[in-house]
Specification:
single chain, 432 residues, alpha/beta, Gyrase A, domain 2, Four Helix Bundle (Hemerythrin (Met), subunit A), Rossmann fold, 3 domains, 5-stranded mixed sheet, 11 strands, 16% strand, flat
């Protein structure tokens, strides 16, 4: 008889007072635990109102309960869900009753999702998409996470894999008949298959950096001389006093970060130290940090006095605004964080530029996806070179194709990912 995992339970909604709290039970004894709490199981996937009682018969709550049979649930196991009144006392009483039930234990962080992976209900990329969906704060993050959770990346990787398997099969058939006359030269078809997959992989690799930015947030640096109004502008963009403003130059000594949702995109605004020559040791450190962050930022906004130009070479996408529009008379391209003049136009321009960047996002969203795809591209490049040398080299070419397939399998968790699982699931809450 094979190993039977423990039946686990946990609160699946956020702790604290709420209108409704959901407790989830998963495992081979979930149905048995449900019957002990509320008697007869409801029909599969149909909610039913039940009175919950502990082992002594004491009433715990009146709840909506659902039962999901094995292979028809999120985890692939028997699952019972209890939709309770969201009282801390009610939840604790039900959790105590479950912990007193033989064969049940409290779930570990991410254990429900891990079981879904182990039972083939989700692939590893979908697990990562679920984690991103839970953490999503903006519309772009939500949409990107849903694409991965829905299986887009896994399905695409499966398509690449199928074509490579086809190519390998053609090569291996030729190897099997190497001493006989093969009626058709498979080399053109094989090379076409390898090149098509490689081209799609290269395009997807280009979009990973943007996808990661959507996950973690784009950075927009505000640069300029001291006392030009950078901190005031940051406060206006953030809608709150995030940075200290003063008439004294050099007030900002470190990079101040403000995270915001800009037209559905996650954006971190950076207020940097004023760029100038100074003998102040601490201010110089702030200026160095400002320059480093500006270099790495996705977009830079330069504030300059009217008639001046930025002290740096501008990139095509850099934005330049004249500062202190409230002291100028109808100057085009001027802005004032103090009066709000031009702030709306600046927000619109930043949003447009970042939206254009976001348009280059692919469905691969993480560095490990990029690394796996780069390995696959390298193997496919080598395979094409070797196969082009002729039939005598097909066996080595076939091995390179198999290397590419194994690299793609890493994306969805088929091979060599065990060391990643603990790290991934530790980021999940206990009820997920």
């Amino acid at each position: 008889m094979g190993f039977v995992p423990d039946t686990i339970f946990a609160l699946a909604t956020a702790p604290g007072k709420a209108g409704v709290a959901v407790v989830r039970v998963s495992g081979s004894r979930a149905a048995e635990a449900g019957k002990a709490l509320f008697g007869r199981l409801p029909e599969p996937r149909l909610a039913s109102l039940r009175v919950l009682k502990d082992q002594s018969g004491r009433r715990l709550d009146q709840a909506l309960v659902l039962f999901f049979p094995e292979k028809n649930s999120f985890t692939g196991e028997q699952v019972v869900e209890l939709h309770l009144h969201g009282s801390v006392a009610v939840v604790n009483a039900v959790l105590r009753a479950l912990s007193d039930t033989d064969g049940l234990r409290l779930a570990e962080p991410g254990e429900f999702t891990r079981r879904a992976l182990e039972n083939g209900c989700l692939d590893l990329a979908q697990v990562e998409g679920l984690a991103d969906l839970i953490e999503s704060e903006t519309e772009a993050q939500r949409q990107q996470a849903l694409r991965v959770l829905s299986g887009d990346l896994g399905n695409t990787a499966a398509g690449w894999r199928d074509r490579l398997i086809r190519a390998a099969a053609l090569i291996e058939v030729t190897i099997d008949f190497v001493d006989e006359e093969v009626p058709v030269d498979v080399t053109p078809e094989v090379l076409d298959l390898l090149l098509s997959v490689q081209s799609e992989l290269e395009k997807e690799i280009e979009g990973v950096d943007v996808a990661e930015r959507i996950r973690s947030g784009f950075e927009v640096a505000i640069l300029g001389a001291p006392n030009v109004g950078k901190s005031t502008l940051l406060n206006a963009l953030a809608g709150r006093e995030a940075a200290i403003t003063s008439e004294y130059a050099g007030t900002t000594r470190d990079v101040i970060e403000v995270r915001m949702d800009l037209n559905g995109l996650p954006v971190t605004l950076l207020d940097t130290a004023g760029i100038r020559e100074t003998d102040d040791f601490v201010e110089n450190i702030g200026i160095e940090r400002a320059l480093e962050r500006a270099k790495a930022a996705d977009l830079r906004v330069f504030l300059v006095e009217f008639g001046d130009t930025p002290e740096f070479d501008l990139l095509p996408e850099d934005i330049v605004r004249f500062a202190k529009a409230d002291t100028l008379a109808n100057v085009k391209g001027a802005i004032s964080g103090k009066s709000g003049e031009g702030v709306g136009d600046l927000i619109a321009e930043i949003a447009a530029k970042l939206s254009e960047k976001a348009g280059g996002s692919g469905i691969a969203t993480r560095e490990r996806h990029r690394v796996a795809m780069i390995k696959a591209v390298k193997a496919l490049t080598t395979a094409q070179e070797i196969i082009s040398l002729g039939v005598d080299h097909y066996e080595i070419g076939a091995e390179e194709i198999r290397t590419a397939i194994r690299s793609l399998d890493m994306i969805v968790g088929r091979v060599d990912v065990e060391n990643l699982l603990d790290e991934i699931f530790s980021s999940f809450c206990i009820g997920k």
